[in-house]
Amino acid sequence: MGCGGSTDKSDDGTLKRLKKPKPWRHSEPITRAQLKKMREEFWDTAPHYGGKAEIWDALHAATEAQLELAQAIVDSAGIIMTSEDMSVCYDERGAKYELPKYVLSEPANLVKDH
């Protein structure tokens, strides 16, 4: 990825587009409520990791949107994706934004709330 935007060409010359994250498992089964709490804690503290608040806001919105809308959000915010699942992104000034798996998708071992 270059630094022109999220739709820069990948190494094979095709445009890099958002894709559904790969399946993953949490270290132990968790409930939807626990996952929600983890996500809320991450997004509450994310701006403290550095970068711009508006980029964190755009990433947050993109993680909660369907793929097409998420792609539009990323493109309009000028976010540079180095991974197709948004786990590692940069803003136009080169600040790095790392997103944990649990904000990108649900784990395979999600259990029903009690």
UniProtKB/TrEMBL annotation:
<dbReference type="InterPro" id="IPR039869">
    <property type="entry name" value="UBTD1/2"/>
</dbReference>
<feature type="region of interest" description="Disordered">
    <location>
        <begin position="1"/>
        <end position="31"/>
    </location>
</feature>
<dbReference type="InterPro" id="IPR032752">
    <property type="entry name" value="DC-UbP/UBTD2_N"/>
</dbReference>
<protein>
    <recommendedName>
        <fullName>DC-UbP/UBTD2 N-terminal domain-containing protein</fullName>
    </recommendedName>
</protein>
<dbReference type="Pfam" id="PF16455">
    <property type="entry name" value="UBD"/>
</dbReference>
<dbReference type="InterPro" id="IPR038169">
    <property type="entry name" value="DC-UbP/UBTD2_N_sf"/>
</dbReference>
<feature type="domain" description="DC-UbP/UBTD2 N-terminal">
    <location>
        <begin position="16"/>
        <end position="113"/>
    </location>
</feature>
